[in-house]
């Protein structure tokens, strides 16, 4: 990358990133700001039960778009363990954009993973102590993604999809995250 490319990339990142939540979003509506920072995760379930097989990943969250959105990057395996030829089923390098919608009084959530073509649309809200995001996969399958067991430095994230029977929910993914220390 030449000097012009570095300056261009830095300009893009500076324009995208924001130092904090926008002033017109009330603190009570800021349900995702606590996530800002970097996290390590243990992969418990990713399409199959991985309880016996150690899988790890990393997640990075930041305020973007003048503080009116929280964007993240979910990476599995971590960048230091990635290699060419990695099967798409064993890999994740996707991003979520959570946009505050004042008319809806909720967050519109879009996740994309270019490697697998996954695209999901949801609406996120606080429900008790949890953050619950409800929506659909691109094929119309209803989904429910939740942040639970939330502390300042840990959380559990699970993704559920409605099964073909239209009644039961199946676990598609579960991650246990720990905040990285500087």
Question: What's the quick description here?
Answer:
This is DUF1579 domain-containing protein. It contains one helix and ten strands.
CATH top level label: Mainly Beta
- How much β-strand is present in the residues? over 45%
Radius of gyration: 17 Å
CATH homologous superfamily - what is it? Calycin beta-barrel core domain
Number of helices: 1
Please provide a written account of the structure:
This is DUF1579 domain-containing protein. The longest helix has 14 residues, at 3-16. The protein has a ten-stranded antiparallel barrel with strand order 1-2-3-4-5-6-7-8-9-10. The protein has 182 residues and is mainly beta. The mean pLDDT is 91. The chain has one domain (3-179): Lipocalin. Strand 4 (92-101) and strand 5 (106-113) form a beta hairpin. The protein is built from one helix and ten strands; from the N terminus they run H-E-E-E-E-E-E-E-E-E-E.
List strands and helices in order, with pairings.
Layout: H1 3-16, E1 37-46, E2 56-64, E3 69-76, E4 92-101, E5 106-113, E6 118-127, E7 130-137, E8 142-148, E9 154-162, E10 169-179
Antiparallel strand pairs: 1-2, 1-10, 2-3, 3-4, 4-5, 5-6, 6-7, 7-8, 8-9, 9-10
């Amino acid at each position: 990358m030449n000097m012009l490319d570095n300056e261009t990339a830095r300009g893009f990142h500076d324009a995208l990133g924001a130092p904090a939540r926008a002033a017109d979003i009330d603190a009570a509506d800021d349900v995702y700001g606590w996530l800002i920072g970097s996290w390590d995760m243990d992969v418990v379930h990713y399409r199959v039960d991985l309880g016996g097989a150690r899988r790890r990943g990393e997640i990075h969250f930041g305020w973007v778009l003048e503080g009116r959105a929280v964007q993240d990057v979910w990476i599995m395996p971590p960048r230091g363990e990635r290699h060419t030829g990695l099967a798409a089923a064993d890999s994740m390098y996707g991003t979520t954009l959570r946009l505050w919608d004042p008319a809806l009084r909720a967050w519109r959530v879009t996740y994309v993973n270019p490697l697998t073509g996954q695209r999901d649309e949801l609406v996120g809200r606080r429900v008790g102590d949890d953050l619950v995001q409800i929506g659909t996969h691109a094929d119309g399958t209803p989904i429910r993604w939740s942040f639970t067991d939330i502390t300042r430095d840990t959380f559990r994230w699970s993704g559920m999809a409605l099964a073909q029977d239209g009644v039961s929910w199946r676990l598609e993914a579960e991650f246990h995250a720990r905040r990285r220390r500087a």
